[in-house]
Design brief:
globular, mainly alpha, 82% helix
Amino acid sequence: KNELFRDLFDRTIEQISAVSENFFKRNKDKSAIYKLVQYSNDIFGLGMEDHHLIQFAMRMPFDAYAVFGHDGWEKGMQGSVLHTGNLERIISEGTSEGSMKCSNVKSAAASFWTVYVSGLFNFTKMMSADEKGSDNNLTSLQDLLCFAMAGLGVDEKIWKPILSELRMEKK
């Protein structure tokens, strides 16, 4: 049983890593605000494609010790570390551009990720309740971004049009 969970962890980490690598390649010339909105949109998109994948990925840090034991639990943390690292990278770019304000990039990324995981948890609960056709998924993403972007000093007049554009492209 543990071997099966380890395999699931490995596959999920590989998938998250591939999505992450592709994301930064596709968006290398975009602004940090655009990247943060796009990254959020992509993760929510994965949740819409397979809410079980997102639910599993969100549980990984909490289950890592049980699956990998005392000496290998860090392996299960790789997914969360990858996401917070991506957020640190984007937020650091934003502070360098002057488009985001924070005194500690690492703390800002951890805070953003905490808000994000909570939002994803509620979103995937909705998805598993089979509300896929509703506008609740866009509302959930907007609510998450409204709170998280405000924490970075980014006005919604700047990020909301980007989200609207991305959502229209998906249709």
